[in-house]
Amino acid sequence: MQKLHRHCLLLGAVFITMSFIVVFWDEVRVGPPYPRTNHRASSKHLAQFKLRQAHRKHLIKELCSANSSLNYRQKSITLDHLIVDDHHRVIYCYVPKVACSNWKRVMFVLSQNLKAPDGAPYLDPLDIPLEIIHNSTVHNTFKKLWMRHGRYARPLMHQKLKNYTKFLFVRDPFVRLISAYRDKFAEPNEYYYYKFGFMILQRYANISQPPTLAPEAFRAGIRPSFSHFIKFLLDPQTEKEKPFDEHWKQIHRLCHPCQIDYDFIGKLETLDEDTEHLLKILGLDKHIHFPPGYENRTAVDWEQEWFANISLADRRELYSLYETDFKLFGYDKPETLLNE
């Protein structure tokens, strides 16, 4: 009897052990419940992202409907900043100083219009040389379509604007100005010195005969300051002579959000997250790797330092000049700069 009792205990222990092994193996095979938690987190994140996009688009529609001066006719809009990819049915309005170099690279890869030296289309955005990226004649733009077909291009353009996915990326307007100055005037940029810097020094730095060449001027310690640049922007004579350069032209004048119903509005301040979602929306997240951001990006918290030598009156006038961009794209009014 005792021997039978021991056998029962032994069999029970074996059964419990085997049951534990089976349960453990099932946990390993099925996996821990993390994917379900991640799915919930992912769904919540997606919902937040959709709300953010809805809010950005609502701000634009609200301001456009309230401001009659923004509702000029669509035929008056400029066309050269709208890059088209017919293969994926995408239209990108590029804004200089808002990650546009990398987005232009991506558009080249998508369209496969640009060929590498070996004759094959570029597959990696980072393989495309910088000098090609900013060559506007290489991109497939609405302007090129208009030049090719004239007024007969208008129905085709309307059809693309209606049916293609349209997107742009924006940035805090004042920070974008700082970035434009750093890129074009803080370093010896020969083209921008010749086109603007020489004149800025004459008019706003009171230097009657600045050096003719940028390297010569910089060696002599002569360069347009940020204050001179702001004076140049605020001078009514500037736009009377020629329109603003694209690097400091207001975003709404480049991309016309009151005339074009953009499907996606990204921001440089949320570039990585917005880019990830946009590529998923386009179904391209498995095919395109967006180039990483650069480390030398102008930071928002630099504004106070950069505007330290700009008078309060000039700061307020500058805000008026870019106020529409601040409001359209949901950027807070820089109260600390405007109320000191």
UniProtKB/TrEMBL annotation:
Q: How does it sit in the membrane?
A: Single-pass type II membrane protein
Which molecular function terms from Gene Ontology are attached?
sulfotransferase activity
The subcellular localization recorded is: Golgi apparatus membrane
One annotated Gene Ontology cellular component of this protein: Golgi membrane
What top-level class of enzyme does the UniProt entry assign? transferase
Instruction: Write the Enzyme Commission number(s) for this entry.
Output: 2.8.2.-
Q: Which domain of life is it from?
A: Eukaryota
Keywords in UniProt for this one? Answer: Carbohydrate metabolism, Glycoprotein, Golgi apparatus, Membrane, Signal-anchor, Transferase, Transmembrane, Transmembrane helix
* Transmembrane parts of this sequence: 7-25
**Keyword Membrane in annotation:** yes
Record bears the keyword rRNA-binding: no
A single BP term in Gene Ontology: carbohydrate biosynthetic process
Q: Which family does it belong to?
A: Belongs to the sulfotransferase 2 family.
The record's listing under PANTHER family reads:
CARBOHYDRATE SULFOTRANSFERASE, CARBOHYDRATE SULFOTRANSFERASE 12
* Name of the protein in its database record: Carbohydrate sulfotransferase
Organism this protein belongs to: Danio rerio (Zebrafish)
- Taxonomic lineage: Eukaryota, Metazoa, Chordata, Craniata, Vertebrata
